[in-house]
Write the structure tokens for this entry.
Amino acid sequence: MSGALNSAGEATPWCATVLTLYPDMFPGPLAGAVSGRALARRIWSLDCLDIRDHAHGKHGTVDDQPFGGGPGMVMRPDVLAAAIDAARAGGSAAPVIYLTPRGTPLDQSRVREIAAGAGATLICGRFEGVDERVLEGRGIEQLSIGDYVLSGGEIAALALIDACVRILPGVVGAAESLAEESFEHGLLEYPHYTRPRSFEGKDVPAVLLSGDHGRIRSWRRAEAEKTTRQRRADLYVGTHHESANTRAKS
Ligand code: ADE
């Protein structure tokens, strides 16, 4: 079950706590569609905290120049530590995660683990980064959503929350629509078709109109394997379909 139990033993919703300098960016797109409906139904909750509330001095400084020189500014460890400690003051089993292109790549299996827990406390950096000592000192997990650089962690946090929320129990109606999707079997998903049967001179593959569910299943499986091999050889090798070992020999 997702979420956690409160002191009265009641189930609490899966909770995303976001530490950011731009709280206005939340819930942003998460207010719409699947995640927005689930938020309204209290399947999950969102708590957004402004890191600047923990800044020092009358100017509300949160960053400073990097020791050793170089471009950009670095978020101060004392400011971020105060924000993290305030966010965790009530005690929580949720992991604390810093979104950064330097992090371990986020994948569907980590998404499933995070979604199965109490929630996540997400730190969104801006500038060049945050002081390493606060990450080490508080044992903070670092995750990246891809090999490209965003202007801050907010969009990465939105992506992580969306990926978790959509698999919380009760959020998506038809169980099979999750079971068949990309990554669930270590493969990318097969292609989809709907009406009209003929579009711009291209017909829907005949097998999908055959009514033969066994043949349809095999065709989809073969398509999923072909697409995964072509686009994501790294994923394909990592599955039971073909091991890195057999591949090297062939
Ligand atoms: N912040 C900036 N770029 C990022 C990325 N690729 N993943 C996670 N957080 C980020």
